[in-house]
Amino acid sequence: MRAIEITQAGGPxxxxxxxxxxxxxxxxxIVIRVAYAGVNRPDALQRAGLYxxxxxxxxxxxxxxxxxxxxxxPGVSRWQKGDxxxxxxxxxxxxxxxxxxxDHALPVPDGLPMREAACLPETCFTVWSNLFDRAQxxxxxxxxxxxxxxxxxxxxxxxxxxxxxxxxxxxxSPEKCAACEKLGAERAIDYRTDDFVKxxxxxxxxxxxxxxxxxxxxxxxxxxxxxxxxxxQIAFLQGPMAEINFAQIMLRRLTVTGSTLRPQSxxxxxxxxxxxxxxVWPLIxxxxxxxxxxxxxxxxxxANAHARMESSQHIGKIVLKVA
Length: 323
Description:
- It holds the Pfam family ADH_N.
- With 323 residues, the protein is an alpha/beta fold.
- It is built from eleven helices and 15 strands.
- The strands form three sheets. Strands 3, 4, 5, 6, 7, 14 and 15 form a seven-stranded mixed sheet that branches. A six-stranded parallel sheet has the order 10-9-8-11-12-13, sandwiched between helices. A two-stranded antiparallel ribbon has the order 1-2.
- The longest helix is centred in the middle third of the chain and has 14 residues.
């Protein structure tokens, strides 16, 4: 099969098209003929040598894909050859075939094209598990999402809006702010010109903050939270180190938590998939949540897809067309 290899740790040019052996399904796994693969920040971290695949995972990048089931391993009863699925992958999405745990796959929602279905797993698993499982976001609460125009951000806006939260976001341009408000954000804050801490305090403080920036945003997030607020950290574009005042956490009963998806157990990911199918997939079929796609690249053009992502000019998801 054709697949994208990381030839060495480095920039986008390290991604090269190669011939690789097709994967075979182990017990509990399925193999998907990939139609489209989502492009995500962890892929770029892996390419740069900063995010090694878990033990036993493919070294080919790619954490989500849509396609058709072509092989079923022992012990798998739900999926059959020919089923159309989108799936969270341990790796291997930038290829014509990819193997994954059967319980990490979900049916392609009715009426949704394969290109859009490929954008669902990584973002939906991340947003649901962090905002609703960890932070327990509820109707009427004020949510602040940093990076509102990203794939995670655009998904978080729509999902939180569907569950009745009030949504505020930060983004880096008037165009990105407008896109976020069109999706359902009550207020989009241009972080280049406005102080999100002051604006959120004027609103009464954020009940939940979803942050992928880190760095000096961390102490600012603490200030922006309402009493009993929850800060959920999912990435560190500006680094993981910060100095914070823990007295504020104690006095105001704040919760600081976070997670990364890839290292979690197969069982944990399966449980998230079950919740998504019950709680979120109906929103997609009802048209209340739809992936925002910035651009599509051919598989062989994965290097340019990464360059586009790292330019931070995109709004929504970037995908690779494989089949």
